[in-house]
Every structure is written in structure tokens, then in C-alpha cells.
């Protein structure tokens, strides 16, 4: 078993709480992503698991072992660093074999595992080269192969693709996900790139200021953020937030924003007494060129053609929104458009605390998603 548990883990550097009471369980064989901005504590938490940082309080378990006070070499983990950490004075073969030699494996075992890992990463023809002769993508493959060759129970990856250019990162992301699906290792992957997190992880733990603020599968985290931080951090573009009021007209709930009002066919009892923010994704907003009942007026600020779609920035009263529209629609700056906000995709937040207010529509929207397996 290689499940992992963090129980009340704290880690401080002076007066700064890098990890502030984290509780997290990672299932055996799971791909868990720690996601958050720089300084949120995700790398520190990973280093606490690896034994590279000593926790100030709490416990760390790997399988049925309390690993809190174990030295790194006894934790049966492998780690891939952001900087690759490929030894420049060694050939690729010796780089991959390094961990196995430290484990004092026999020569035939080392030979078999190095060759096997190199074949999986498509670098078998590079085994006699030095790292100075490799590209960034090739050095990254060497680092991953070295970690794989040890057949560790737990694989830790600290922003392994961040030093690659955009096209190579896209290619490596797909390759890495395919590769890790074939392994039995439990994987914890640290990144600040929410596209990597959404596309690769079985579950995502979103961190902010040393704490986990939301834990769930990618669809849950994207569609039902726990607060304005998560909604604003995840998504390209991030979730839009508008100040809103909910009232009743003839027994029908009506939502008023600075650009207009529309009916909201849902249970609003949970919204009573709150100063509200209306959260909605760019793709959940329709755009019309003529006024109609239930539409919200806005003015186009800028149009960004992106090939597959166009991204439009609009001013809606006092609020600025990002709207995703079809690639063949080109509203010009300073023209008026009318927005249709899809009620099932609206998420409500408390304006003072930024936390989500649940009305039941969130679960309905998530249930309608189609998953092809």
C-alpha cells in the first residue's frame, strides 16, 4: 500500500506559516495535484513528505508507516525536481542508474531497469550522451526515467514542466499523463499551472496561504469553486464576478446586476440576508446584438480572436467581464451587446467573505456533464 496521509501538518519559517494545519489523504495509486500560486505552501508540503523539510507539528504517513521522522532514504519515494537535477558529469545511463546504485541493486537489475525506463521515455538512443548534449525536454525525460527506475511506491513531481516552452510542455503533459497511468505508483504533482492540474489530476487540492481551500475532481473544482479565490485562480479566463441583488417579482426570483435584470428559476432561500456576488464562467454567457427581455446590456471594450473562439472583454455597468463567443462573431469595441447569463451555471458567493453559497443548482449542472470512458 502507498496511500499517503497528512494529519494536522504545520511548517513555519520564522514567523511565516508556509503550511498551516493541512489534513489530506491521497489514495493508493492516485494522481493528486497540489495547485496554487507561488508561496501558497504546495512545494513545502511536498518537501515535508519527502523528508527534505522537518514538520513543526502533525504527522505524515506513507502506507501504514509513520514517516514523520524517517530520513528521506527510508521513505521509499522518488522525486522529480523543477530544475531536473541531472548530473552534468554523468552520461544519461549513469544518471538514470544513480538511484539504483545508491540502493545497491545488482548490475543486471540496474541494466534492465535503466533500459526499460529509457524505452518508456523514448530516450534509449541517448544513453551514451552527457546532459550538456541534451535539450530541455530530453533532460526532463531523463529526470523522470531516473525516478521511475527505482520503482518507488510514491512519485513526487515539483513543477516538472515549468522550464519547457509552451509547445513542448503541451507534448510532455500528454506523454507524462499516459506514462503515469501505466504505473502503480501514487503520484503527487505540484504546479501553479491550472491547465496542467485540470488536464492531468484525478483530484486537485487547491492551496492558498498554507491551507487547502478546496479538494475535489477537476470538474468539481472548476464548476463549483469553494470561494472567489478558487474561481478566480482556476480557468482561462478566470470566473467572472458581479455584484448582484436577488428580489421577488410576482413570486418569481429576479436577479439584478448593474447592467440589467433577469429571472432566476431556482431556489433562492439560501441567498436571503447575504450581500451577493454572482459568479459565472465566460463560456456560460451568451451574446446577442439586440435587446430582449432577460438580457443584460454591456459595452464591448476589446475583442481577442483566439482561433477556436473569440474572447470579448465587456463593461457591464460597473463590472468588467470576459465572455467566450463563436470564432465567426466579431463585435467591435465601443458597440453595445446584450448578455444572457445561463442560470444553471451561476454560482453565488458571499460578498463579504468570498465563500460559496450553495442553492442546489451546482449539483444539477455537474450531473449534466457527459464523461466518456
Helix content: 10-25%
- Binned strand content: 25-35%
Largest sheet: 6 strands, mixed
H/E element order: EEEHEEEHHHEHEHEEHHEEEEEEEEEEEH
Order of neighbouring strands in the sheet with most strands: 6-7-8-3-9-10
Q: Tally the structural domains.
A: 2
CATH class of the largest domain: Alpha Beta
Flag low-confidence runs. Answer: 368-373
Query: Helical stretch count?
Result: 9
Give the structural class.
Answer: alpha+beta
Mean pLDDT: 89
The CATH architecture designation of the largest domain is 3-Layer(aba) Sandwich
Radius of gyration over C-alpha positions, nearest whole angstrom: 24 Å
What is the 3D shape?
Answer: elongated
- What is the CATH topology of the largest domain? Rossmann fold
End-to-end Cα distance: 26 Å
In total, the number of strands is: 21
What is the assigned CATH homologous superfamily of the largest domain?
P-loop containing nucleotide triphosphate hydrolases
Q: How does this model look, in words?
A:
The protein is an alpha+beta fold. The chain folds into 2 domains: 4-231, P-loop containing nucleotide triphosphate hydrolases (Rossmann fold), CATH 3.40.50.300; 238-367, Nucleic acid-binding proteins (OB fold (Dihydrolipoamide Acetyltransferase, E2P), Beta Barrel), CATH 2.40.50.140. The chain has 9 helices and 21 strands. It has helices at 42-50, 92-102, 107-120, 136-149, 166-181, 194-200, 218-223, 228-233, 361-367, and strands spanning 4-13, 16-26, 31-35, 57-62, 65-66, 77-80, 154-158, 186-191, 203-208, 211-216, 240-249, 252-257, 260-263, 276-280, 285-288, 296-305, 310-316, 319-325, 336-341, 347-350, 356-357. It has a 6-stranded mixed sheet, sandwiched between helices. It has a 6-stranded antiparallel sheet with strand order 13-12-11-14-20-21. Strands 15-19-16-17-18 form a 5-stranded antiparallel sheet, with no helix packed on it. Strand 11 and strand 12 form a beta hairpin. The longest helix is centred in the middle third of the chain and has 16 residues, at 166-181. The protein is elongated and about 80 Å long. Residues 368-373 have low confidence and may be disordered.
